[in-house]
Amino acid sequence: MRNNNIRGLLKIPGYKIKRIDKTETRLEIQIELYKRNQGICSGCGKNHGGLHSAQEMTAEDIRLGNQRVFLHIPKRRYRCPADGRIHTEEINWIALGARVTKAFGKEVNRLTSITTNQEAGWYLGLNDEKVYRIDKAMLEELFKKRLIPTPVSLNISVDEVAWKKHHRYLTNVIDTDKKVLTWNEKGRKAEVLDKYYESLGAQNCQRIESVAMDGAKTYISSTKSYAVNALIVLDRFHATQKANNAADQIRRDELSKARKNENEELVKLTNCKQRFILLKNRSKLSERQSATLERLCEINQPIYKALLLKESFLQTYCLTTAEEAKKHLQEWIEQALSSGLKPFMELAHSVAEKAQYILNWFTKKISSAISEGFNNKIKRLKRMAYGYKDIHYFKLKIHQHCGYLNPRRFQFN
User: Fold this and answer.
1) In this structure, what DSSP letter does residue 327 have?
2) pLDDT tens digits for 102-145?
3) pTM greater than 0.85
4) Are 367 and 373 in contact (CB under 8 A)?
5) CATH superfamily of 155-233+367-402
6) How far apart are CA 58 and CA 220, in angstroms?
7) β 231-234/155-164 pair status
8) Has residue 329 got a pLDDT over 80?
9) Could you count the other beta carbons within 10 Å of the beta carbon of residue 366?
């Protein structure tokens, strides 16, 4: 009765327990096949005769209580009539590529979704290399089930994130409706995003309604070629970021001039500690910060102009219709071009080129802010692991933490 109860907990169909050896920390369980049980040939996937030999393998299973469980399994080899070669039998509850059961593999996968491989290995009594092999095999199996073919999304956000030094990037595609990462690939060229659209197929590409992005020309050209019905949106987050970057560049230029001219007051007002006063929404400044900003604008004309141009640009998103926004944007472009401030003149040229994508925001208020949130998760994941040498594994880990492979959001059999 005792053995039958343990057998029920282990979930080993077709096998029975022969002997159990117990130590303080381990259960060594010898199992054997029922007499009528025929193995499945890994070559042809069928039950057939032609037994060649048998040998014992050991696979770790999930713990019982506080004791680690090791199953000693007789594994048979068959001469397959299909190709005449010798193949080892396939046991469907043993994980591929690792000497563990699938139940144990799922346990490893659950742990690595919330902590590092090193800490998961310490908890389970495994070394880092074995955790890596088990986790990668489980993720690859789940990837085939959930992400092949590529899930279809109607509204997406496209952005890149650095995965390595020297401008090594990953392109990520986010489903903004489901708030889940659906696809990623190394690089950020048009050819990279082309692979995503090609994986969807022409019919599904035509179903895409909107694509939010940061305005990268490579992503725009790829999207226009494949998602012909999609509305390309340069969202508010990135547009605001570009205006803030232009204003901050003016601050840095004026700080450099002030240091050369030994203008101590201007140096004090424009140093990096004060940069957020210039970038922050004026309505959210404290009395002290407002006084500092007023004094800065009083003694420095370029910074005053930069502040006015930045606030005028952001005012575009406070308007109610695309027509009003278009008129306001045209006036802003003229002001920026005549300001004499190089960062804002460059921004004006960029805005003029992509004005329609900015105005599309009033038609479809989709945002790629979710991509920035996922980018922070990805950077945290990379820092926790101190980097990844295996880019394929890193892509799978991103899906595990941000996409359809996340066990906390999606359950798998």
Assistant:
1) H
2) 899 999 999 999 999 999 999 999 999 999 999 999 999 999 99
3) no
4) no
5) Ribonuclease H-like superfamily/Ribonuclease H (3.30.420.10)
6) 53
7) unpaired
8) yes
9) 22
**Neighbouring C-alpha atoms within 13 Å toward the C-beta of 243:** 28
- E strand or H helix at 288, and its extent? helix 287-299
Average model confidence (pLDDT) across the chain:
88
Phi-psi region of 11 (alpha: psi -120 to 50; beta: other; left: phi over 0): left
| DSSP string of 48-97, one letter each residue | ---EEEEEEEEEEEEEETTEEEEEEEEEEEEE-TTTS-EEEEE-TTBPTT
Cα 141–142–144 angle (5° rounding)? 70
Q: Is 16 helix (H, G, I), strand (E, B) or coil?
A: strand
User: Using CA atoms, how far apart are residues 27 and 66, in angstroms rounded to an integer?
Assistant: 10
The rounded distance, in Å, linking the Cα atoms of 124 and 105 is 11
Top-confidence residue, 360 or 42: 360
Residue type, 111: L
